[in-house]
């Protein structure tokens, strides 16, 4: 029995940020190669601190869904998962036993050698008539920033593709470092040029800055009277969104796992928590803002304020993914980065089988069942604010300077509309929803939204002090 965990960055502001990770998780789930596929995020829920608690099995492979190695894959993710490892990840990955689970942490998918095949696939999509004698390939990277070391992997892929001999020329250019892509015409001689962005997702760079820097007018742009005559540029989609990345993820997981391992068992604490939840749901359960109850051999979830409403007046969702997509926005269409904020939209119901109910509740309130059950049994460990602040690095390190009053001011604002009780700030929660209190949900550690807001508070105060 094996769990696969895909780790993305996520966002407190942009609901689309997680969509690529969700798409790969859906694809891998449909393939059925793993007993379970779970997503976790730096800036969304389940958070990196929570995600291991939400997996069913004791054999867990964790893959960072990043295009290159750097600050997140080497510092943030290992630290937040509790791997006890910092710095470059060796090719074989890092394996640790954490909370009774064997966790194998791999390199990011973007540095796997098979990404050269994905670049080639993107190039062929953009220009199916590639001929070795008159076609050049440009692999375009972002360039090394404070957080990433993306140039190394761009050079490695270019070298592999050069050796493959499919192109007359293979070039590497970057947005933010030399050689910059703006000067490409000085270096590229071939009449046909395929430009493949080595980026994780479609976004500001691939849709705006790259076309603007180069003067692209669409997927195909003709440049006349350049240093090497007329050249046609075929612009591909980014490599990170190609479906073949799913194959790279599977191979990475297999390489990390090794042939000899037998796989894991069901994790006892997780199993007990969900068994208790299903027992409650078999009667009727109020959990946070929803009502869960049995319905003709299936289960129904609906907003508790919609209790008694006719089914016909509600939008019916029938899959966990449907619930996931529905609860990401509130009634005004605003993004909900923290799922326990009291702004769940009304007007919908979900009808689901027992296994799908569990996955839907996981999407609705990530890690809430596991953490509440642990608290119910006095087994939930809390992390005080000071420890959370001490752990922060990079641009968040400054939250260590926040006074208790500043943290409390921000928490009153941010947490005031959250269902959870702040155990990390010494608030007391005597009974959870397992004991019949619908809003009885523990918060064991300040979430990343609160940390980000504390940073804003300090930055604002600092800026005001300079004015
Ligand atoms: Fe909710 Fe505050 Fe906990 Fe974040 S820190 S999950 S907003 S209670």
Automatic annotation (TrEMBL):
Leader peptide range in chain numbering: none
Domain DR2241 4Fe-4S iron-sulfur cluster binding intervals: 378-456
Molecular function in Gene Ontology: lyase activity; metal ion binding
InterPro entries named in the record: CbiX-like, DR2241_Fer4, DR2241_middle, Sirohydro_Cobaltochel/CbiX
Domain DR2241 stabilising span(s) in chain numbering: 270-375
Pfam families xrefs: CbiX, DR2241, Fer4_23
Domain of life: Bacteria
CDD domains for this protein: CbiX_SirB_N
Keywords of the record: Lyase, Metal-binding
Protein name per its UniProtKB record: Cobalamin biosynthesis protein CbiX
Organism whose genome encodes this protein: Deinococcus irradiatisoli
């Amino acid at each position: 029995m094996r769990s696969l965990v895909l780790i993305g960055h996520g966002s407190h502001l942009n609901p689309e940020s997680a969509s690529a990770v969700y798409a790969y998780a859906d694809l891998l789930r449909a393939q059925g190669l793993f007993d379970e596929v779970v997503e976790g995020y730096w800036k969304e829920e389940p958070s990196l601190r929570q995600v291991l608690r939400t997996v069913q099995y004791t054999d867990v492979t964790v893959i960072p869904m990043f295009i290159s190695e750097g600050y997140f894959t080497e510092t943030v993710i290992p630290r937040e998962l509790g791997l006890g490892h910092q710095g470059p990840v060796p090719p074989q990955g890092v394996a640790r036993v954490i909370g009774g689970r064997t966790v194998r942490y791999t390199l990011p998918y973007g540095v796997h050698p098979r990404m050269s095949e994905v670049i080639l696939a993107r190039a062929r999509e953009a220009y199916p008539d590639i001929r070795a004698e008159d076609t050049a390939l440009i692999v375009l990277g972002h360039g090394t920033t404070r957080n990433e070391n993306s140039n190394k992997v761009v050079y490695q892929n270019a070298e592999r593709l050069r050796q493959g001999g499919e192109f007359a020329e293979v070039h590497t250019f970057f947005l933010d470092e030399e050689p910059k892509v703006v000067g490409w015409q000085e270096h590229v001689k071939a009449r046909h040029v395929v430009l493949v962005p080595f980026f994780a997702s479609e976004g500001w760079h691939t849709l705006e800055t790259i076309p603007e820097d180069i003067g692209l007018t669409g997927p195909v742009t003709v440049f006349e009277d350049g240093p090497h005559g007329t050249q046609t540029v075929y612009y591909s989609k980014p490599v990170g969104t190609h479906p073949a990345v799913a194959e790279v993820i599977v191979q990475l997981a297999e390489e990390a796992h090794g042939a000899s391992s037998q796989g894991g068992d069901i994790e006892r604490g997780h199993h007990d928590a969900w068994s208790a939840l299903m027992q409650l749901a078999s009667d009727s359960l109020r959990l946070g803002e929803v009502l869960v109850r049995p319905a003709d051999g299936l289960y129904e979830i609906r907003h508790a304020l919609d209790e008694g409403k006719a089914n016909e007046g509600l939008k019916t969702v029938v899959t966990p993914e449907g619930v996931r997509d529905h609860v990401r926005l509130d009634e005004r269409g605003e993004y909900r980065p923290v799922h326990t904020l009291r702004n769940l939209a009304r007007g919908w119901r979900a009808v689901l089988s027992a296994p799908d109910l569990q996955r839907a509740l996981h999407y609705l309130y990530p890690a809430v069942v596991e953490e509440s059950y642990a608290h119910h049994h006095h087994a939930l460990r809390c992390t005080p604010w000071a420890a959370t602040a001490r752990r922060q690095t990079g641009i968040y390190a400054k939250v260590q300077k926040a006074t208790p009053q500043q943290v409390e001011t921000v928490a009153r604002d941010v947490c005031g509309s959250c269902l959870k009780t702040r155990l990390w700030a010494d608030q007391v929660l005597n009974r959870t929803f397992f004991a019949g209190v619908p809003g009885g949900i523990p918060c064991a550690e300040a979430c990343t939204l609160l940390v980000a807001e504390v940073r804003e508070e300090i930055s604002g105060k600092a800026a005001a002090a300079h004015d």
